[in-house]
Amino acid sequence: MIERYLLRYFLAVIDSGTFTAAAAQMAVSQPTLSAGIAKLEREVGAKLLRRSSQRIELTEAGSQFAVHARRIEREFNLATAAVGGIAQPATLRLGVLTTIASGELAGLVARISAEAPGLAVELVEGNATVLAQQLARGRVDLALTAVQGDATGDGEALRSEPYLLALPVGHRLAGEAALPGEALAGETMIVRRSCEALPETSRYFTRRGIRPSFALRTPNDDRALAMVAAGLGATVVPASHRHAGVANPALIGFDLRRTLVLVRGEDAREGMAAVVDALRGVFGGSGADGV
């Protein structure tokens, strides 16, 4: 029988990313934690972690085991709370793509609060790669992510949307419905570092001989748009990213679209149906100039 403390050691390592941090989290020495992981691997008969000088990675067996380990730990905590007479509210962990518009995300949270008032929701942000890893490891129960084009894999497509320019409303080109990339020659740009379409955007302008200067490089989309409105520069955003003082002409020849996708984890959790309905209601259909 696998002892519970070994599962907790294992989960601490994959959650913290290092043996040192996991040992501190579990209040044991690093040799003790390492010995525990080695014992766990012997008991399950498989290598669970791949160690390198820079990071810890799950093996394929480790990824599969992590889902069950997290489920066991969660059920243990629920059983303990039930026996102790502690009413523990259900918590659903929702992975959210970093580039989801804040206004829409706030609308989702408000809708969940109204339709499932007893449900606690934990939001976990990340890019598409990180969210896929979090799902595989059981760190999130659902993920709202995006893919380029229409290939949704195992997920449920919610909405497709184009990318648009973001210009200050006082800009000389802000009144145009659509603009060629060449019209931005000599303009200052803002780089959205979290943008999943950043490589394609860069290639689009480079192929047209546009090599702009950059006034800001930021992972924060709200800040990027606030700086566009203030006149610092222009950028490219998904159509759902609206901001006061910002005009959004189409970018001629930049036909890339993203599809927002809902992906479920392996476990069916309490409250999941309500959250799925809310996601469909807020992000489904043809909003934000989608189709």
From TrEMBL:
Coiled coil: none annotated. Transmembrane segments: none annotated. One of its GO terms (cellular component) is protein-DNA complex. GO terms for molecular function: DNA binding; DNA-binding transcription factor activity. Residues 1-59 form the HTH lysR-type domain. Keywords: DNA-binding, Transcription, Transcription regulation. The keyword Acyltransferase does not apply. InterPro entries: LysR_HTH_N (IPR000847), LysR_subst-bd (IPR005119), WH-like_DNA-bd_sf (IPR036388), WH_DNA-bd_sf (IPR036390). It comes from the Bacteria. Signal peptide: none annotated. Belongs to the LysR transcriptional regulatory family. This is LysR family transcriptional regulator.
